[in-house]
Task: inverse folding
């Protein structure tokens, strides 16, 4: 994506308040994990559920980054949180802003690795494209990330942290004590950045549960789209455990061509993939599946490809 503005240094890096690994990071934990962590570090079990709700709202509804600012907690409990845990997000290395308002972030995560996140504003909506892995195991011929070997999966904290970083930069948080904002700048999230989300299923699921939580970031599952190359065994799990919209990196109408463009097709071919996709709208209660198709001259763009595509996806609610 071409950017017209110069790269700017670190616009809002979240400082590392303590050395890596010294204390648990509360970002990215599910409610159940957060409750168990608080109890394990001394919070009375009878209080834990209430404390989870309070901390959850401060982190994900109001975007607070300091325990000392969580004013509905006692000073003693805030001090306990401050010395026991940390609130750590990825760090912004660079930010590029284009003339149309698109923002491209290069983020640094643990280990010094870097991933990209892109915010795309449109009339009536703002879409954030986030990454799920450093590199990728797939070698799709048209994808730059496919040329980079997989380094590791992102943690749930690093995935949801991308959403939080963008909302920080855009000033898109609610304010404690004020009515909930009806309009938001980050209205949609798409898992279409670096990596194959379904090869990092558990962390993607946990991060999206935080994003969809009504007392947290509070995006509807219909505003989240997960793009996959077609990891068939995890598609049903996506429907049942996340329930978001689905996009398929399809790009060909024959196995011969798709084997070359999207090599995972050699493991789960078009017939197998489409059989699974026919069940997805029912299992997830979603409306339509998006079929992504990059037109490559002389490869997959013939009239016969177009006719074959129509026949293949007939009966699947699609766009």
Result:
């Amino acid at each position: 994506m071409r950017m017209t503005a110069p790269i700017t240094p670190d616009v809002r890096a979240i400082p590392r308040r303590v050395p890596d690994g010294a204390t648990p990071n509360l970002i990215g934990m599910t409610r159940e994990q957060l409750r168990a962590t608080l109890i394990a570090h001394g919070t009375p079990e009878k209080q834990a559920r209430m404390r989870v709700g309070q901390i959850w709202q401060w982190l994900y509804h109001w975007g607070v980054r300091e325990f000392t600012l969580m004013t509905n907690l006692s000073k003693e409990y805030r001090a306990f949180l401050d010395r026991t845990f940390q609130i750590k997000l990825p760090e912004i290395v660079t930010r590029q802003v284009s003339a149309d308002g698109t923002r491209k972030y290069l983020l640094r995560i643990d280990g010094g690795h870097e991933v990209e996140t892109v915010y795309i504003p449109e009339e009536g909506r703002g879409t954030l494209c986030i990454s799920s892995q450093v590199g990728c195991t797939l070698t799709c011929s048209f994808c730059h990330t496919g040329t980079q070997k997989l380094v590791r999966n992102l943690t749930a904290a690093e995935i949801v942290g991308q959403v939080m970083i963008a909302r920080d930069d855009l000033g898109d948080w609610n304010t404690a004590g004020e009515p909930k904002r009806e309009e938001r700048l980050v209205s949609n999230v798409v898992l279409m950045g670096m990596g194959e989300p379904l090869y990092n299923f558990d962390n993607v699921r946990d991060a999206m549960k935080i994003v969809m939580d009504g007392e947290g970031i509070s995006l509807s599952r219909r505003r989240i789209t997960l793009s996959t190359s077609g990891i068939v065994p995890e598609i049903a799990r996506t429907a049942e455990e996340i329930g978001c919209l689905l996009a398929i990196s399809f790009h060909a109408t024959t196995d011969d061509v798709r084997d070359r463009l999207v090599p995972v097709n050699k493991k789960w071919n078009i017939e197998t993939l489409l059989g699974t996709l026919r069940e997805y709208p029912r299992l997830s209660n979603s409306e339509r599946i998006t079929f992504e198709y990059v037109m490559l001259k002389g490869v997959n763009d013939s009239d016969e490809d177009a006719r074959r595509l129509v026949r293949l996806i007939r009966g699947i609610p699609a766009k």
